[in-house]
Amino acid sequence: MSSDVRNILTALEGIPEPWQPHLLARVNDYAVKVVKLDGEFVWHTHDDTDELFLVLSGRLTIQLRDRDVVLGPHDVFVVPKGVEHCPRADGEVHALLVEPTVTVNTGDAGGERTAPLRELD
């Protein structure tokens, strides 16, 4: 990936499907990802890392076992490492995620929703 300027809105326009994270930038060993979300994801845990969600548009609910965290545009929430969670978007949400580059989107759950980190065109 080059060190050129990237535009978040242009990057999101190039994402055809929800739940398919795309690499916007790298910061050391971390990936800054853009993603479209729609519907409910899978319950999963990232045992070794926190996961930062920044909602750009829409409304995202991060379901935790003991509560729901509701995020609107420009809200940020960090899911601590080891905490089981399940993102849910009732309508399309655009979000930015920050986590280590090697982090798998479905964490320990695996399954058909596991998606490789894609490069943007």
What's the topology here?
Elements: H1 8-13, E1 22-27, E2 30-40, E3 51-57, E4 60-64, E5 68-71, E6 76-79, E7 85-100, E8 118-119
Parallel strand pairs: 1-8
Antiparallel strand pairs: 1-2, 2-7, 3-6, 3-7, 4-5, 4-7
Protein name: Mannose-6-phosphate isomerase, cupin superfamily
GO molecular function: isomerase activity
InterPro entries: Cupin_2 (IPR013096), PKS_Associated_Protein (IPR052044), RmlC-like_jellyroll (IPR014710), RmlC_Cupin_sf (IPR011051)
Can you offer a commentary on this structure?
There is one protein chain. With 121 residues, this protein is mainly β. It has a single domain, classed as Jelly Rolls, CATH 2.60.120. Helices cover 5% and strands 45% of the residues. It has one helix and eight strands; from the N terminus they run αββββββββ. Strands 1, 2, 3, 4, 5, 6, 7 and 8 form an eight-stranded mixed β-sheet that branches. β1 and β2 form a beta hairpin. It is globular, with a radius of gyration of 13 Å.
Number of domains: 1
Number of strands: 8
Largest sheet: 8 strands, mixed
The parts where pLDDT drops under 50 for at least 5 residues are none
Strand content: over 45%
CATH-level-4 superfamily name = Jelly Rolls
Question: Could you tell me how far the N terminus lies from the C terminus, measured between alpha carbons in angstroms?
Answer: 10 Å
Helix content: under 10%
Task: Please tag this protein with its features.
globular, mainly beta, 121 residues, isomerase
Summarize the structure.
Keywords: Isomerase. The protein has one domain: Sandwich (Jelly Rolls), CATH 2.60.120. It is built from one helix and eight strands, in the order αββββββββ.
